[in-house]
Design goal:
The complex is a heterodimer of chains A (364) and B (254).
Chain A (H helix, E strand, L loop, with lengths): L1 E2 L3 E6 H11 L4 E4 L7 H12 L3 E4 L3 H13 L4 E5 L1 H6 L1 H10 L3 E7 L15 H5 L10 E3 L4 H18 L2 E7 H5 L1 E6 L2 E2 L21 E2 L8 H15 L6 E4 L6 E4 L2 H16 L4 E6 L1 E3 L3 H8 L3 E6 L5 H8 L6 E5 L8 H23 L1
Helix pairs in contact in A: 1-2, 1-7, 3-5, 10-13, 11-12
Chain B lengths: L31 H14 L6 E5 L7 H4 L3 E4 L5 H11 L4 E7 H7 L1 H9 L5 E6 L2 E2 L5 E2 L18 H4 L5 H6 L4 E8 L3 H19 L4 E7 L3 H4 L3 H15 L3 E5 L3
Parallel strand pairs in B: 1-2, 1-3, 3-4, 4-8, 7-8
Antiparallel strand pairs in B: 5-6, 7-9
Helix pairs in contact in B: 1-8, 3-5, 4-5
The chains are: A alpha/beta (364), B alpha/beta (254).
The complex binds thiamine diphosphate and iron/sulfur cluster.
The site of thiamine diphosphate (TPP) has 17 residues of chain B, from helix 4 and strand 5.
Amino acid sequence: MNAQSDTVSLIKGNEAIAKGALAAGCQCYFAYPITPQSDIPEYLSGELPRQGGEFIQAESEIGAINMLLGVAACGKRAMTSSSSPGISLKQEGISYLAGSELPGVIVNITRGSPGLGSIDPSQGDYYQATRGGGHGDYRMLVLAPSTCQEAYDLTIRAFDLAFAYRNPVMILGDAILGQMKEPVLERRETVDTSQEASEWALSGAKDRPRRLIKSLYLADGALAEHNERLQAKYQEMHKEQDWEEFATQDSQVLVVAFGSVGRIAKSAIRMLRGQGYRIGLFRPVTLYPFPSERLRELAKNNSLITIENNAGQMVDDVRLAVRNVSDSAFHGVMPGKLPSAEDFLTPILHVWEQNSQIAQAAER
Amino acid sequence: MSSQPQAEERVAFALPLTMSGASTHFCPGCHHGIIHRLMGECLEQNGLGESAICVGSVGCSVFIYNYIDVDAVEAPHGRAPAVATGVKRALPDRFVFGYQGDGDLAAIGFSEIMHCANRGEDVTIIFVNNTVFGMTGGQMAPTTLLGQNTTTSPKGRDMDKDGAPLNMSELIASLDGTAYSSRVAVNTIKNIKQAKKALKKAYRAQNQKQGFSFIEFLSACPTNWKMTPLQANEHVGTTLMQRFPLGVFRDTVE
Ligand SMILES: Cc1ncc(C[n+]2csc(CCOP(=O)(O)OP(=O)(O)O)c2C)c(N)n1
Ligand code: SF4
């Protein structure tokens, strides 16, 4: 890697993702417009061709994900982005990517749902992202940035992970992240990715046996064997677990929140710490694989509350992580309502009080 | 593999190097096998075996990669033109072709084919029109003839309820991104020769980056037509061609 001049610019989360993709060596990008992520195709429609890449405004999200599949089969770096309804349309293609073991980056800047919903923030697509979304027993790596800088950095990491595991990787953000502006440090490194897929990618069968990329396994036992191999790969992905901890050194109550809500929760925790409450934050950065081990450890000394901008999805993973050790309270802000730090204070303090009562009872 | 010819012998019929030689899984009298063979021959004769990338589809031809021995990727049902677009944009100097049935291309994949053609992608799509969904048991396709009985049009296709058959070659020919669009058949020697010419033309359009090329093959499905192979072969000429005339509908290839 050659480090070139680094620059700082004040940009939206959407643009940070687009720039991250360019920095990662993304060669092709396909998308269909939808709020609140249209800044990504708008930016890349000019910038990607300028850098020698290919941009297509696809006829639909289905078209876009399948164009990505074609590029991925040739071992090149490609990305597509959309928002909730469009991501629903991509699910069949994502399942084929997973089944064919093809790398690609899919960005979901979520919006209010179900249906056409609204263009407000929402974390309602957590299940869809972390459970596979499309048909079949597959998994995607899911990365959830909470700042514009992280959006930039994680986009670069998403490409590296996609090729390391030959698997689709999702960036899960929301309307808050996509639309807010923050300074972003662009690390302009040129990465040589020309050989990263030379062992398996299609290029024409010249001086080698032909290659085949498929997800159909009809022979007796072949699909089961394929699925076993995929599951082993998903197990291996667990070493990619990543999270942020804030003020956990002496905390007694731990807030678990991801993405934008994680960041808003941090503000709430700062306010409460100012009043002497020992509250900490655990923010999963990888939603799949979920950072269970560390959370389980923290749960030994903390009461938990999970806060989400949905009716309670990640809280299932939190409870699974701490089962037999602890449990988690839940506070949900319905998609369509902007979460605020003030709204989090009462639910967090409620858990704090319960925690203190339990502690007192134990002392008596 | 065939044995070496003796001194005075001349090879009249050899397996193209672009084909694996595996015997096909198609029903007796199915035209898919003939079309595969023609494609393999033309790939070899145009020296495209080492640069070709095949985009397969979902239908009776799903195993095309078992017979045509070139690099291949499997597309979801109907999406081959979008996958081919991605392949071609990633590797603009390779020869990229897709192979789709009429359910795949004209029903679920209608949007992808129209936009791929309209963008003028330098890819070649082979469209096999047998007027039914072969693989799933002979249901009605967008190309099913008026009055034709299928497993989902038991009283025959009804203009009022089901609409009229889609003439894809004519539709594709109306798009400015299309360099070549023609309809051919493989029911007679004469038509097979004509089909080979069409394939070569389409390959030329792509290799010279002149735009999208499309060839529709009228194809027999004796199984779902409930005919003998011979009857089905005849039916292509006597009945299918009335609705789907053979011909070149657009040709801007220099
Ligand atoms: C999303 C999706 N819907 C439906 C199917 C089931 N399916 C498989 S092949 C096919 C139709 C094939 O017909 P056609 O394209 O005409 O090809 P043929 O078998 O006649 O060659 C259908 C509906 C599928 N595989 N995927
Ligand atoms: S069902 Fe029809 S299209 Fe399919 S293999 Fe048999 S004859 Fe061919």
